[in-house]
Amino acid sequence: MFETVLVANRGEIAVRVIRTLRALGIRSVAVYSDADADARHVREADEAVRIGPPPATESYLSAERLIEAARSTGAQAVHPGYGFLAENASFARACEEAGLTFIGPSADAIALMGDKIRAKETVQAAGVPVVPGGRDPDLADAARELGAPVLLKPSAGGGGKGMRLVRDLSVLEDEIAAARREARASFGDDTLLVERWVDRPRHIEIQVLADAHGHVVHLGERECSLQRRHQKVVEEAP
After folding, report:
1. What is d(CA 105, CA 93) in angstroms, rounded to the nearest whole number?
2. pLDDT band at residue 101 under the 50/70/90 scheme
3. Which among 3, 57, 171, 193 has most CB atoms closer than 10 A?
4. Cα-to-chain-centroid distance, residue 115
5. Which CATH architecture has domain 135-196?
6. CATH topology of domain 4-112
7. What is d(CA 230, CA 164) in angstroms, rounded to the nearest whole number?
């Protein structure tokens, strides 16, 4: 069992992780940018460390500052929450190299499935049908070949951030630029892919949970079709 865990996130998810750590008798370390100095997760943690100015690229997306915060507070593990660096294989690997346990998938697993482009290529190679699309560096050409409407997606993250529905290809270049800006600000990576737009789709998930000891369970099916701005609002299970 860990004695101290650094929570590499902010807001509601950081508060939830901190409260769970407290219930388990584990000391928590929060991190914050200047914009979040008075945030709830900072007040609830046992210790809090400033990691930079308000821009996420200079604080919550800085692997170096997060790892230094973990080292300086004696944390043995890092919980990434969701968003920011939670699906960043480089961050997970940097934690491992620093002697910190990354509470989440291995760096190899994240590299394989956390990136949308690699994940799509992996399942496609296994014979799983995928939505037609394309990727950088031929993004614009692929979009025009598909024909409107198309959906632009950041490859490195989720939560609906940076996703753009393009119904008029005359504004494609502007939409690509806007999607890149949001992806860079949210995930530190502006790589995009494009897919044919599927109108009124059903979003069904079967989530699988595994640990480092080889125990694997599935958590049943989830109906996740109720969304707002490409982000799930309600998940129903089973």
Report:
1. 10
2. very high
3. 193
4. 9
5. 2-Layer Sandwich (3.30)
6. Rossmann fold (3.40.50)
7. 9
